[in-house]
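Could you please consider the sequence and fold appended to this message?
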Amino acid sequence: MDPMQFAYRCNHSITQAILLFVMDILEGFKKNEHTVATFVDLEGAFDSVWREAVVYKLADIGINGKLLLYIANYLTGRTARNLVNTYQSEWIKTELGVPQGSVISPILFIIFIKDMTSNIPKKIGYADDLLAWTQNIDISAAEKQMKNQVSSKVCLGVTLDQHLTFQEHTDKTAKKAFGALARISALMADIGGMKMEIGIALYKACVRPHLEYAYPIWCCASEAQLRKIYRVQRIALLRASGTINTTPAAALEVLTHVPPPRLRFQEILAHEFIRILRKPHDNPLRCMGPGLPRADPSVKAIIIDISDSPLCDCGLANETVDHKIFHC
């Protein structure tokens, strides 16, 4: 299995995939290196899988015997048809692709593409989304070869700008969250709707995931940008509780038992650090250099040097020391 494939695998996530890319960009900034990246989205990926190649690659990684025969039988002789309203087409035999909706199909797909980028040193993959990049002090040669230069790019749901300020991303995040809030506002208490507890549950299920998506990637956004995120929660709590607009955010959080966004973000950062620490020592996320977690065997605490990390400003410990310590 490609270690840089982050989809459909235990202890892997979109956040970790983008974090690996962003950390390398920041390391390049320190060396005055430019980063040139290519984003690839494989069109019709699951429908274009060469089934015989899947069986071959399964055997190549050690799958054999009855299990291999079972999977080969599962992939052969498959048929499909179209259904439009009440009209059904004739059944046709399919020669390519893995069955849609099957639990095993995503795994078969990432095994099929595992060697597609084997010769590229710096890359990440998330299912059919691939990203490869290179870094150099001299960018002029690479710029001449770039056909479509952009000032920002959405990478697995996170908008990356040229200087990693994440201003565009936080603007989009706030807009999405306000859109989700608008759709549930008609049900909330301040306009004669449901109980406050149900309104809070709707906020947590429909709005807050937008605010927290991949936060470890963009946690170094400016305070001005983060305040746009905080404002979404305040308005949501106002509508859910039915209180007047001048109610302070702190009072709303006490009334609704919803923690401040800053505390939620600190918790997310701490959890992500723990997940990275659990990875093998040769994992790229553990080997990125300064700013990533390192375990001190002499104490029963996780010591994390985040002075140069994008996972910064989490405020979980005394700022007068050189390291921040998260106690297990």
